[in-house]
Amino acid sequence: MKIQKIGIALAAYQPEPQIFFEQLKSIQNQTFKNWVCCITSDSTLDAIYGDSQFESIIRDERFKWSVNSERLGHRKNFQKAIEWALEFS
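Request: output the structure for the sequence above.
Response:
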């Protein structure tokens, strides 16, 4: 069976930038390259967007970003990420 594309769902809320960077960099550096990572955030990502170490990740089109207009809570935020990842995979 050939896997066409892997969908990764990632829900965030006020991620600590260094740990978040390491997590996303780990995903980006996987040997399997045909994936999409859908990140939904229950908080602003201004600190991430303004941090130069995230430039290569933000430019990587395999990462999809969404900031919720209102806080959904961990369960609904993750559900949103899963549903979005399924659309791309």
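The two ends are 15 Å apart (CA to CA).
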